Amino acid sequence: MTAPIHELTDRARDVFRIVVDSYLATGTPVGSRTIAQLSGLNLSPASIRGVMQDLEEAGLLAAPHVSAGRMPTETGLRLFVDGMMHAMEPSAQERATIAAQADSAGPVEEALAGTAAALSGLSASAGVVLVPKREPVLRQVSFVPLSGTRALAVLVGADGSIENRVLETPGASAVALVEAGNYLTARLSGLTLSEARARILREIGQERAELDVAARALVENGLAVWSEDGGHRPVLIVRGQARLLDEAASHDLDRVRQLLDELEGKEEIARLLESAQDGDAARIFIGSENKLFALTGSSVIAKPVRALDGRVVGVVGVIGPVRLNYARVVPMVDFTAATLARLLG
């Protein structure tokens, strides 16, 4: 079992911090001579080698090659993140870049995608956003004939979004299609799908709906298709996948191939992000601490997005190499979560 950080000597903590900082900045092991030259520690290379050997025996450092320097293990990175990291708040420019995307006009999903892209660019990682499927507010509904027994139901949301569904419409004439679309647009504009469906079913049940039999069936079927498809599937947005293919990955084609396959497994990524919904702080999964990216040396930082009333309305985060600049990226994810809370809450 790894010793807690307070059990390390001051000398060991100083050397360990230098090794971790150097590795996170360069991605390469650091040697004792380099530490002696750059650190300002009043220690000889031989003394530093002895400290590094002790840290290696404690499971905090590793030597990838016999003659190479040391680099932190995943256990070492966890100890550093939990006990030694000093957070660096996002700059005013970084905050403005993220906020501008979240505040942009247009459909909510476009703002979410822009925010994920901004987070990706600023963190040099893949940006991810997971939100529940949002019910659109109706502005217009129409039915377009496709064949004798099928039609395309087109829903236009108040935010400008457009969704299409194919319906089976046996026996419905062109007149019935127009009538059904006009009825829904006139009566249900401004309502969500669940509100619209409840009102229509109530009116039909009370025989107050001014529709013939064919148009009535269209209305019921159209709203049912959207309602069944709606709120159960989360929306996962991933931007900046190419940023994960760092120089080290370019020399390991199998790792590249597997990493790209993992990023295509959106259900698995969604489950990983959903596991971060409990609690208020960002969760950090380093390398093999999460099964999804265990073999590709990737870390995940994820933070729940909470509305003012405390409800979790999404999760935002980054997927990056194990040598992420955690001190910089964690506060950036925190700020993005707070920004999206205003958008989604």
Walk me through the structure.
The protein has 13 helices and ten strands. The chain is an alpha+beta fold. It is elongated. It starts with 9 loop residues before the first helix and ends with a helix. Helix content is 47%, strand content 17%. Helix 1 crosses helix 3, helix 5 packs antiparallel against helix 6 and helix 8 runs antiparallel to helix 9. Strand 4 and strand 5 form a beta hairpin. The strands form three sheets. It has a five-stranded antiparallel sheet, with helices on both faces.
**Main pleated-sheet profile:** 5 strands, antiparallel
The percent range for helix content is 40-55%
Order of H and E elements = HHHEEHHHEEEEHHHEHHHEEEH
Termini separation comes to: 42 Å
Number of E-state strands: 10
Mean pLDDT: 81
Question: From the alpha-carbon coordinates, what is the Rg to the nearest angstrom?
Answer: 27 Å
Strand order of the largest sheet: 7-3-10-9-8
Counting H and I runs of at least 4 residues, what is the number of helices? Answer: 13
